Structures are given as C-alpha cells and as structure tokens.
Amino acid sequence: MNVQTFNARVATPTTRLVGAMAIASMAWVVLGGLFVTPKDVDQGDAVRIMYVHVPTAWVAYLAFIVTAVASACWLLSRKHSMGFDRVAGASAEVGVIFMAMTLLSGSLWGRITWGAFWAWDPRLTTTAFLLVTYIGYLAVRGLGGSLEQRARRSAVIALLAVLEIPLVHFSVLLWRSLHQNASVLSGDGDIKMDGSMLTTLLVGVIGFTCTFAWLVMHRQRVLAMQDAMEMTQLDAALRERANESSRLK
Amino acid sequence: MSTQLSLGRVARAVAAKDLRIEMRSRVVINQVFPFAGLVMVMFAFALDNDDVLTRVAGGLVWLATLFSLIIIIQRSFAVDTADGALEAQRVAGLDPAGIFIGKALAVMMQLVTLEVVLFLAAIVLYRVQLQSDGVVLLVTCVISATAGLSFVGTLYGGLTAGARGRETLLPLLMLPVVAPVLIGATRATESAFMSGGAAVSDGWPWVGVLVVFAAVFGLGGILSFGSLIEE
C-alpha cells in the first residue's frame, strides 16, 4: 500500500456533495435560527440555542452508535477489515467533540432558562458519562501496539460502553426518582413549536448530520494514511536493516 | 482424555496463586488497608460535621472502596506483568475465562476483607447504627457490589496491563463504568443503616441493580478477557 493512492482519494464526488449539503443547510440554520424564527414566549432569544443543542446531541448519539456498529462489524467480520476500525475511531473522535458541544450549549441554555448550569437529571448525567467513557475509548486507541491489537482492544471497549450506558442511565433514573419528584426537563415534551422553528430545527439536524458524515469520511482517510505511513516506515526500516546486514557480509 | 484443565480448576489455581502472593508480600494489608483508613479520616476532616458524616457514611465507605479498588487492581496485574507471568499463563494453555474468574475471585476476597474493616471504621468514626434487620441487606449488598467491582476491575486491569501510562488510564476507564455500583451500593447501605430516615426495605431494589450489573460484567469479562490480554 503506498501513500500516493490515498492522496488521490482525498476528495471524492461523494465527500464534495456531502460537504456542499452541509454548508448549504448550515447557512439555512444560521439565517433561520438567528433571524427568521420568532422568539419564544417564555424563553425569548434563549430558545435559539436549541438549533445547535438538539442537532449536536443527536449527532453525538449517532456517532457512538456508528462506533459500536463498526466495532461489532470488525469483531464479527472474518477478514477483520481495518476500514471498520478506522470508521469506529473517526466516528468516536467526532462524537466526543459534538458531545462536548452538547453539554456546553446545554449548560448555557440551562443557566438562562432554569438558572443553573447543571441538573442531576438522568439524561444530562448519562450524556456526561458517555463523554468520559468515549474519552477513555480514545485513550485506549492511543495505547500503541499493532493495528490488529488496537482494533481488537478498542472494539471490545466500544461494545462494553454499550452495556455501560443503559446501566448508568437506569441507575441515575432510579436514584433521582427516589430523591426528587419531578425533573427539570420533564415538561420539555409540551413545547408548542412554530412551523418555521420546527423546519429550522429539522434542517439543523440534517446539516449537523452531513457535517458529521463529512468529518468522519475525511478523518477516516487521514487515519488510513497514518496507518499506511507507519507501515511504509516500518517496511523502509526493515529494508535498511536488511541492506545493512548484507553490506556487512 | 483432554489435557485441558477445567474452567473451575484454572480459576481456583489462579485465585489461590494471587492470594498466596498477597499472603507472602502483604502489600494490600500493609499499604492498601491503611490508605483506605486514612481516606475515611480525611473525609471526616473535609466534611467536619458529625450529623452529615452519619448521614453520608454509606457513600464514603464505597468511595474509599473504589479508591482502594484502583490500587488493588493495579497491584494484581503488576504482579502478573512484571515477569511476563500473564503471557506464561496463556502459553501454558490456561483458559482466559478461567484466568479472569480466578483473578476476579482473588480481588473479591481482598475487597470484602477491606469492606468489613471500613464498615467497622464507619461504625466507630461516623457513629452509624446497624440494626439486626439491616445486617442481611448489608451483607447481600456487599457481596453483589463487590462481585461487580471485581469483574469490572479485572476486565479493565487486563486491558491496561502492560500498557504505557496504565496508572492514569485505569481510573479513567474504570470509574465511569462502576458509577452504577457506587449509586446502588450507597443507597442500599444507607437503607441498611437507616440513615436519613430510609427504610431497610428501600434497599432491596438496589441490590437487584447490583446483581444485574455483576452478572452483565461477569459474562462480558468471561467472553472478552481472552481478546483483551492477547498480544
């Protein structure tokens, strides 16, 4: 495998299309979210945070589902194709960024609407645990060793995280239900939404999903190049050693 | 006849080996137990209020246990990786699931002993009261929570064994996973102590959570330990 072939594939028509869709829908979200949609009756301009908060949360969860599915595919596939492993890694990296954005925008929104940056709500707590868990997942990917070893370790960790998240969510749910009657977010489902708000939110979800797909595709290619470079460097080092020993003879 | 040892025999042999090393080196007794005791005293300094201490005693005991778990797990795998003993066990053809169960059992025995000491310390230092009907709940909670902690600890200990920077990586990976155990065991222990007006019967659903947790990670460990320690 040589590095040149990867360079040629950096921008394909698919990535260009997804990138263009991401830019177009993001422009719509900026215009719609900041200027076209009305203020909320109760929250005023603060409701505009929603156009970032909800799509980033959706993308973060999507990213971790992609990581889990790609990890399972790597473990189950007979060829153990490294492509699955790289998609899992790229998706987790992008997911961690989006999850941090979700928590940041959510805590700012929370400060404005319910007067506190943080509440021990099951949804919030689970999201925070998910962030820490995937930071740990990325640390495991950085442990070193062969590509195969990296893929195997991180696939098992990704699947264990899938076991962990429902357990954390359920135990926090039970914990809060015993100590606090109603959670701050429980009234959220009743929000009446203006048509333009709902449209902007949906375009936001599409735009952020396209951005996610675009980032993962490119990141995955960069990872492939990194892996290929490591392999060629190793090959070059081996050749050098072989030449050295033949010269000594 | 198969020359492969049965799972139970491998587990027993590995657990006996780990406990024998501990009996001879006394690292856990001489270092981890005093450390956990120190943590309990430090909590009293930090909270500085007798009523608050009595109220939160259950949580403090489990936090001290979690901190000690990190050290016990690191010790448990340091013994095996120092001389390549983990690889030697694999080369000898031992079933990884058996190694997992054996190491988890040894950790469990050490943790239960530690918890008994910590609960006695809580009764003395934090003035908690344990009624006779809370004892059964407390014992069940300790066994199920410790099983869950040992399985998760052994699983992540095996993953980080021999890796660079394992001292810092292990808590980062392990603590988020054991959060449900901290929540469940703390609530069940508070019910057993009847602190904050909790009834003993409130604690039993939490023991259910702990048992499910232990079962999930016990099974997860048996299935995946082999691929985690593979070089």
Short description:
Chain A has helices at 3-8, 13-36, 50-76, 82-113, 122-141, 147-179, 195-248. Chain A is mainly α. The two termini of chain A are 31 Å apart.
What does this structure look like?
With 249 residues, chain A is mostly helical. Chain A has a domain at 51-181 and 198-228. Chain A is built from 7 helices and no strands. In chain A, helix 2 (13-36) runs antiparallel to helix 7 and helix 5 runs antiparallel to helix 6 (147-179). With 231 residues, chain B is mostly helical. Chain B has one domain. The mean pLDDT of chain B is 91. Chains A and B meet through helix 5 and helix 6 of A and helix 6, helix 7 and helix 8 of B.
What keywords describe this structure?
heterodimer, A: 249 residues, mainly alpha, 7 helices, globular, B: 231 residues, 8 helices
List the helices and strands and how they pair.
The complex is a heterodimer of chains A (249) and B (231).
Chain A: H1 3-8, H2 13-36, H3 50-76, H4 82-113, H5 122-141, H6 147-179, H7 195-248
Helix pairs in contact in A: 2-7, 3-4, 3-6, 3-7, 4-5, 4-6, 4-7, 5-6
Chain B: H1 7-25, H2 27-47, H3 50-82, H4 85-91, H5 96-125, H6 132-160, H7 166-193, H8 204-229
Helix pairs in contact in B: 1-5, 2-3, 2-5, 3-5, 3-6, 3-7, 5-6, 5-8, 6-7, 6-8, 7-8
Number of E strands of chain B = 0
| Rg of chain B, alpha carbons | 18 Å
**Oligomer classification:** heterodimer
Query: What structural category do the secondary elements of chain B indicate?
Result: mainly alpha
What share of the residues of chain A lie within helices?
A: over 70%
Radius of gyration over C-alpha positions of chain A, nearest whole angstrom: 22 Å
The secondary-structure element order of chain A is HHHHHHH
Low-confidence stretches of chain A: 180-189
Largest sheet of chain A: none
> Can you give the helix content of chain B as a percent range?
over 70%
- Unreliable stretches of chain B: none
Whole-number mean pLDDT of chain B: 91
Largest sheet of chain B: none
Q: Structural class of the secondary elements of chain A?
A: mainly alpha
Largest interface: A-B, 27 and 29 residues
Overall number of structural domains of chain B? 1
Choose one word for the global shape of chain A. Answer: globular
Q: How many angstroms separate the termini of chain A?
A: 31 Å
Using the alpha-carbon principal axes, give the shape of chain B. globular
Q: Count of DSSP E strands of chain A? A: 0
